[in-house]
From TrEMBL:
Cited HAMAP family: GTPase_RsgA
Protein name: Small ribosomal subunit biogenesis GTPase RsgA
Species, as recorded: Streptomyces xinghaiensis
Domain EngC GTPase, residue spans: 140-291
Gene that produces this protein: rsgA
Keywords of this entry: Cytoplasm, GTP-binding, Hydrolase, Metal-binding, Nucleotide-binding, Ribosome biogenesis, RNA-binding, rRNA-binding, Zinc
Region (Disordered): 1-22
Amino acid sequence: MRQQAHHLSSSPSSPSTHSTSPAPLARYGWDAAFAEAFAPYAADGLLPGRIVRVDRGLCDAVVPAPSGPGTGSAGAAAGLRTVRADLAPVSDPDPTRWACTGDWIAYDPDERAVRALLPRRTAVLRSASSKRSDGQVLAANVDHVLIAVSLAAELDLGRAERFLALAWESGAQPLVVLTKADLVPDPATLAHLVADVEATAPGVSVLTVSAATGDGVDVLTAAVTGGTTVLLGQSGAGKSTLANSLLGSETQTVRTIRDSDGKGRHTTTTRDLLPLPLPGGGVLIDTPGLRGVGLWDAEGGVAQVFSEIEELAGDCRFHDCAHTAEPGCAVLAALEDGTLQERRLDSYRKLIRENEWIASRTDARLRAERRRVWKQRQALGKHLVQRKRGPQR
Ligand SMILES: Nc1nc2c(ncn2[C@@H]2O[C@H](COP(=O)(O)OP(=O)(O)OP(=O)(O)O)[C@@H](O)[C@H]2O)c(=O)[nH]1
Ligand SMILES: [Zn+2]
């Protein structure tokens, strides 16, 4: 077992473990459904917690602190402490099941180990860089995927569609944020740009924000409060600036110095999951490598980005219509009468092809399993969205 001598003072095996309340975890997104999933572990004296960082077989996680004064630890909200935990008990041959930032866990304070991951509600996946086509989970239990698109350059709708496919595939709700709105001073021009993006993103809210003037930051803040948010977008899109706006004075990288390997070598680490300083709580996940992720097995996500094309396809005469030259093709008819743009259809085809290529290199059994989970999530997601906002339209 790895002995971690770190700066966190509270005793990990306090006898008052059973009296700790997970209520402070609500700031991190803990809710009744997670509590229900955790219930069997509570009886074993385990603690609920959330992974804020993963690092070579170990993770940092926030867990409830034993009640009493002075138990908060650096970087954790009141009533919580940050622990270093061993991930060995939850290792898995399937990389998509590896523990990642955002996972809810059952933490064993005696062993200082993660004994179980609670079932994920959503997961942001990307292809691993290795030759084997394995997916890798970059963030778990995400509620909002915030896609930053800069107004400083010409809108790249194809790129936005790619990020949207990835976002939908995760099971989270995408949200497009057009950044640097101060660079488009003419309201009519800005309205046109928003309309273009809205047409590209059915079912997605499109916000405009200027970090320079502060315009729109309040609306964005309201949209992410209480939930778990990740930021995606091209380099230079303004993600760091947005993160700083959301996190306020709480800096984006909380630095902690600890004795990392028991040999006296001090390392500086960053935390990937940070609490938002909002009355309603919420967290931002900003994991290195997450921001510019590539598409991976996002068939369902692609279908959702191009839902109007999928709907049209339902009216094609042949159910296996390829929308190329078939008689009675509703997609080609929409192209003809101008209701569907050629750019949009091209983009759809490109992402479908890309996805088919990735899928062909992926283990069929794992794929089928993920498809099943995705469908469940999608059904649940729709249900939750409807409960929160009332039926749409
Ligand atoms: N005018 C204006 N410039 C902005 C605004 N937000 C960000 N910028 C500028 O845009 C540039 C890129 O912003 P970043 O926040 O670093 O972009 P990023 O997406 O984090 O970039 P990467 O770290 O490369 O992924 C910086 O020079 C910012 O100062 C804004 O609201 N208005
Ligand atoms: Zn067709």
